[in-house]
Amino acid sequence: ERARDAAYQNSIRAIQWGLTNMTDREFQELRAMRQTNGVVQIVLETVALILGHKDTTLTGMRNILRPQLMERLWNLDLDALSDTEYTRVRENIQKPDFEEGRLRTSGQSVYPLAVYCRGVAEYLYVARGNGAS
Predict the structure, then answer these.
(1) Which terminus of the chain faces fewer neighbouring Cβ atoms within 10 Å, N or C?
(2) Rounded to whole angstroms, what are the CA distances from 46 to 4, 10, 23, 42, 119?
(3) Residue 132 reports pLDDT greater than 60
(4) CA 6 to chain centre
(5) Which segment, 15-19, 57-61, 127-131, is predicted with the most confidence on average?
């Protein structure tokens, strides 16, 4: 029970950190990209999945990078994610491009969103009765 509570608290902290540290500068950099590297691609795809978007092309993902994105992420009912979306989010955060080192070196503009995605995955893992991961 204690490990589960700690995992839950850690997930909430990660979600909050990711959302409070995503700046206008990062949004501008992401919106201006003509093409993405693997790190940016997988993070934006994961955000799209969390939001329930089916279009994970660059154009589709660029469409989620609107000024209201942060408000949508803050107000999102995470428990409403389908099992399929949850599974895909978990799969994405386990890919090599989601590793800490790669995120910090080639994905700086999406790093806060990556932390948010990890927090969401951990929150859902705990909330769905799986305990601490």
Answers:
(1) N
(2) 24, 19, 19, 6, 12
(3) no
(4) 20
(5) 15-19
Residues 6+ apart with CB under 8 A from 108: none
Predicted local distance difference test score (pLDDT) of residue 131: 56
Count the helix, strand and coil residues of the chain and give each as a percent rounded to the nearest 5: 75, 0, 25
Region label for 127, one of left (φ > 0), alpha (ψ between -120 and 50) or beta (otherwise) = alpha
Integer angstrom CA distances of residue 23 from 52, 59, 121: 23, 21, 22
For 23-83, where are the E strands, in sequence order?
A: none
Per the listing, tokens 């589709």 go with 60
CA distance 79 to 83: 10
Distances (CA, A) of 68 to 24, 25, 57, 72: 12, 15, 20, 6
**20-34 pLDDT per residue, tens:** 998 888 888 888 877
Q: Does the CA dihedral 96-102-103-107 come out positive or negative?
A: negative
